[in-house]
Amino acid sequence: QSGDPEAGKDKIAACAACHGTDGMGTAPIYPNLAGQSATYLESAMKAYRDGKRGGGMSAIMAPQAQGLSDEDIADMSAYYASLEP
Amino acid sequence: QSGDPEAGKDKIAACAACHGTDGMGTAPIYPNLAGQSATYLESAMKAYRDGKRGGGMSAIMAPQAQGLSDEDIADMSAYYASLEP
């Protein structure tokens, strides 16, 4: 995990609408991210970005992930992983 | 959420190898499930079962989900959702 949680904090404006700034989903269909493994979060975001993860909320998540660099994803993942669930 | 966490407890033997009986991933690539939204967990499992969710650990998860009924998935999801993260 090479992400910077401080940098990630400034990159999660779009995420927060559904996943909260505190990493708690704002509705039951949105997973909680607080305290989740950063490694897993990176893997999930890359699967969305690369068009591999369908089903669920992928129609929303794939476009969200499209413009993100590996570093963006690492930082955002580190931020949510750093939060207390 | 119609799942029965008590019934789910008896159905998660296969899950626990990677996600723990306590819902904490046994390695960083495995997401924590404890306290996760049951609605989200059901959605994720159905996406694996229906072959829509690729990438990440889908090569392991898709076959795992294949034999599960909607009720199995609801029960297992309710179990992990009921745990303290």
Attribute tags:
globular; 54% helix; 85 residues; mainly alpha; Cytochrome Bc1 Complex, Chain D, domain 2; homodimer; 5 helices
SSE blueprint and pairings:
Two copies of one chain form a homodimer.
Chain A: H1 5-9, H2 13-19, H3 38-49, H4 58-66, H5 70-82
Helix pairs in contact in A: 3-4, 3-5
Oligomer: homodimer
Strand content of chain A: under 5%
The total count of strands of chain A amounts to: 0
CATH class of chain A: Mainly Alpha
* C-alpha-based Rg of chain A, rounded: 11 Å
Outline of chain A: globular
Percent helix range of chain A: 40-55%
Mean pLDDT across residues of chain A: 97
CATH superfamily of chain A: Cytochrome c-like domain
Largest sheet of chain A: none
The class by helix and strand makeup of chain A works out as mainly alpha
- Number of self-contained structural domains of chain A: 1
Query: What is the CATH T-level topology of chain A?
Result: Cytochrome Bc1 Complex, Chain D, domain 2
CATH architecture of chain A: Orthogonal Bundle
Low-pLDDT stretches of chain A: none
Q: Biggest protein-protein interface? A: A-B, 27 and 27 residues
Q: What is the string of helix and strand elements of chain A?
A: HHHHH
Annotation field: number of helices of chain A: 5
Q: Distance N terminus to C terminus of chain A? A: 19 Å
